[in-house]
Amino acid sequence: MTAHELDRPAWASLTSRHEAFADGDAKARRYRPSIVPFAASTDDSPESLEALGTLLEPGDTAILLQAGEIRLPASLRAIRRAEGVQMVADGGHAPFEDERIVKLGPADAADMLALAALTEPGPFTLRALDIGRFWGVRDNGRLVAMAGERMAQPGHVELSGVCTHSEARGRGLGRLLSRYVAGRIAEGGDRPYLHAFASNTAAIRLYASIGFTLRTTMQVAVIERADD
């Protein structure tokens, strides 16, 4: 069976639309750590896994995300593992406008990082805007919700970073921004997709309600060098 390019989304991204942000070679690559911590090998051959191991410096960590079992060379170990899901849009998203939604830029980066630290939507850095667009909602000047783009492959862009401040929950802002970003991705000719932890059933229900369907389960591992 031929593997789907989204089975190893980081690899597909780092060898195509985000190649400029990659460290590594033809066997294994990672995003530069200051941008996002994802890494991947092209396959599970011993050569590729060993190449993956060379990408991590002492004290460094990275995240692997792929369909199927995550295998590691002796030089690496997993310090956390989890199961996730990958969902893709059904094609029903269209761009729309909402006066509450504003485009976020470099001047908003500190506020974005603070919101992400508070809500923990997944890996997020001050340089998230280097690889994708973000939009948010402010309440009396305070950023209370945001969502944006992360990995990108030919024909696909990942919806990511969806989060809402605890004091602004119950207002449908996560749903609103997820639909908005999906519409912007579709407007560019790409198919939106996203990831969630399998245990986050509330998020999965939300995404299903706005037209995302399960494509596959995913394995997640936070890795480090075994000799650390």
Structural commentary:
- The chain has 228 residues and is of the alpha+beta class.
- It folds into 2 domains: 5-84 and 218-225, 3-Layer(aba) Sandwich (Aminopeptidase), CATH 3.40.630; 88-216, Gcn5-related N-acetyltransferase (GNAT) (Aminopeptidase).
- It is built from 5 helices and 11 strands, in the order αβββαβββαβββαβαβ.
- It has an 11-stranded mixed β-sheet with strand order 1-2-3-4-11-5-10-9-8-7-6, with helices on both faces.
Strands of the widest sheet, in order across it, are 1-2-3-4-11-5-10-9-8-7-6
What is the CATH topology assignment of the largest domain? Answer: Aminopeptidase
DSSP summary, beta strand count: 11
| Order of helix and strand elements from N to C terminus | HEEEHEEEHEEEHEHE
Instruction: Provide the gyration radius in Å.
Output: 17 Å
Assign a percent range to the helix content: 10-25%
Segments where pLDDT lies below 50 for 5+ residues?
none
The CATH class of the largest domain is Alpha Beta
Number of helices: 5
Question: What attributes does this structure have?
Answer:
228 residues; alpha+beta; Aminopeptidase; eleven-stranded mixed beta sheet; 5 helices; globular; Acyl_CoA_acyltransferase; GCN5-like_dom; acyltransferase activity, transferring groups other than amino-acyl groups; ribosomal protein
Could you write a compact summary of the structure shown?
With 228 residues, this protein is of the alpha+beta class. The protein is built from five helices and eleven strands.
Topology of this protein?
Layout: H1 9-14, E1 22-24, E2 28-31, E3 38-41, H2 46-53, E4 61-66, E5 76-89, E6 101-104, H3 109-119, E7 134-139, E8 142-153, E9 156-164, H4 173-187, E10 191-197, H5 201-209, E11 212-225
Parallel strand pairs: 3-4, 9-10
Antiparallel strand pairs: 1-2, 2-3, 4-11, 5-10, 5-11, 6-7, 7-8, 8-9
